[in-house]
Amino acid sequence: MQQRIIDTAESMFFRFGIRSVTMDDIAKELGISKKTIYHYFTDKDDLVEKVTSHSLSSEMCKTELIYEQSQNPIEEMINSTKMMREMLQNVNAVLFYDMKKYHPKSWAKYVEFKQGFLEIVKRNLSNGISQKLYRPDIDVDILAKLRVEIVDLAFNIEYFPPSSYNLLNVQLESIDHFMRGIVTTKGLEIYEKTRLAI
């Protein structure tokens, strides 16, 4: 039951944001009493924290699986973008605003996740250089941080309000721009062929 509540809450938070979804809404969606939810979770903040932990852990597992299954760093980037595309089709950008403003413990978990993601991007860039797919003169540390922050920036509703921008399009434009700036001639050929799969 606890996992059912987490899964349902996650789906609703992703679609509508966190603040607009009440514990009553979640109970109604599950066809259970609100008391049942409070049996497993202290309050909404506790539920949001558990949902965040579950979601980020799942994303990290998928990311590592992509790394293991990809033939090269470019394919890894493309496959990560495909995973992001599937996720973002059901995400309301206000989710991140709500988390940062109203649920600081959950936001801290997200910030920690970003640090782990940063190391994954660094690994990708280093592997791409060693395989001569990325330019040898790029600064891995700077570009990894830029990549992570650009992903984050696309979720900022002040810069990209949902009424004017499609979150998925913003992310796809940013990864395309990023990749074209780092690939070698050999890497560009692979990128152009592989990106069609997005």
Can you describe this structure?
By secondary structure, the protein is an all-alpha fold. The chain has one domain (44-197): Tetracycline Repressor, domain 2 (Orthogonal Bundle), CATH 1.10.357. The chain is 75% helix and 0% strand. The chain has helices at 2-16, 23-30, 34-40, 44-69, 73-88, 94-102, 104-130, 140-154, 167-182, 185-194. The longest helix has 27 residues, at 104-130. The mean pLDDT is 92.
Which features characterize this protein?
Tetracycline Repressor, domain 2; 0% strand; 10 helices; mainly alpha; 198 residues
Order of helices and strands: HHHHHHHHHH
The residue-averaged pLDDT reads: 92
Number of strands: 0
Radius of gyration (Å): 19 Å
Query: How far apart are the termini?
Result: 36 Å
Specify the number of helices. 10
CATH superfamily: Tetracycline Repressor, domain 2
Biggest sheet character: none
CATH architecture descriptor: Orthogonal Bundle
Number of domains: 1
In short:
With 198 residues, this protein is an all-alpha fold. It contains ten helices and no strands. The two termini are 36 Å apart.
Helix/strand layout:
Layout: H1 2-16, H2 23-30, H3 34-40, H4 44-69, H5 73-88, H6 94-102, H7 104-130, H8 140-154, H9 167-182, H10 185-194
